[in-house]
């Protein structure tokens, strides 16, 4: 069973550890990313996920195994929900766990969404474009701006479609 578990501030070190794999994978798209002198990538600044009610960090778990994470900024004022970062570990990739986790997030935060992918990350673009096409029944906008693909859509009717 796949579930999303809210990351607590005291678990930040676990999130930072799994984020090292994410950064490693992402470094093939952004060559300037490199390891620091201690052999690790520069850690993400995550304070806003503990200090701001609009930022949410989740572990993605299959049964009890940690297989990924998601960082979400929930909507405020006229800004949509966004996926800040999203990662499924390689051995679990392609098995539908990312789609399932994303659908859970879309249901948890109904409303307008904006998802972005850098142009070089073709697998991410393919994943998000296909998933959004599926869940929105084709009712989404996609455009390219400043080196990024951007999809905008609404998830308020997801439960109506059985998602």
Supply database-style keywords:
163 residues, alpha+beta, Aminopeptidase, 7-stranded mixed β-sheet
Short description:
With 163 residues, this protein is α+β, with helices and mostly antiparallel strands. The protein has helices at residues 12-26, 48-51, 97-108, 122-135, and strands spanning 2-6, 55-62, 65-73, 81-88, 112-118, 141-145, 148-154.
What does this structure look like?
This protein has one domain (2-161): 3-Layer(aba) Sandwich (Aminopeptidase), CATH 3.40.630.30. The model has no long low-confidence stretch (mean pLDDT 94). α3 links the parallel β4 (81-88) and β5. The longest helix has 15 residues, at 12-26. The protein has helices at 12-26, 48-51, 97-108, 122-135, and strands at residues 2-6, 55-62, 65-73, 81-88, 112-118, 141-145, 148-154. The protein is built from four helices and seven strands; from the N terminus they run βααβββαβαββ. It is of the alpha+beta class and 163 residues long. The protein has a seven-stranded mixed β-sheet, with helices on both faces.
The CATH topology label is Aminopeptidase
By CATH reckoning, the class would read Alpha Beta
Question: Can you say what the CATH homologous superfamily is?
Answer: Gcn5-related N-acetyltransferase (GNAT)
Sheet-strand content, in percent, reads 25-35%
Mean pLDDT: 94
CATH architecture type: 3-Layer(aba) Sandwich
As a percent range, the share of helical residues equals 25-40%
Secondary-structure-derived class:
alpha+beta
How far do the termini sit from each other?
16 Å
């Amino acid at each position: 069973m796949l579930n999303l578990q809210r990351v607590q501030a005291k678990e930040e070190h676990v999130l930072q550890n799994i984020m090292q794999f994410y950064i490693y994978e992402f470094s093939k798209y952004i060559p300037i990313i490199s390891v620091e002198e201690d052999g690790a990538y520069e850690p993400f600044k995550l304070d806003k996920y503990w200090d701001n009610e609009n930022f949410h960090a989740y572990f993605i778990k299959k049964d009890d195994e940690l297989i990924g994470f998601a960082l979400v900024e929930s909507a405020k004022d006229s800004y949509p929900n966004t996926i800040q970062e999203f990662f499924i570990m390689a051995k679990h990739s392609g098995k539908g766990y990312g789609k399932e986790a994303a659908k859970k997030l879309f249901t948890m935060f109904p409303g307008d969404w904006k998802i972005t992918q850098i142009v070089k990350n073709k697998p991410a673009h393919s994943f998000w474009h296909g998933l959004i096409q599926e869940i929105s029944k084709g009712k989404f906008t996609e455009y390219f701006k400043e080196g990024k693909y951007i999809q905008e859509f609404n998830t308020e009717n997801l439960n109506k479609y059985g998602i």
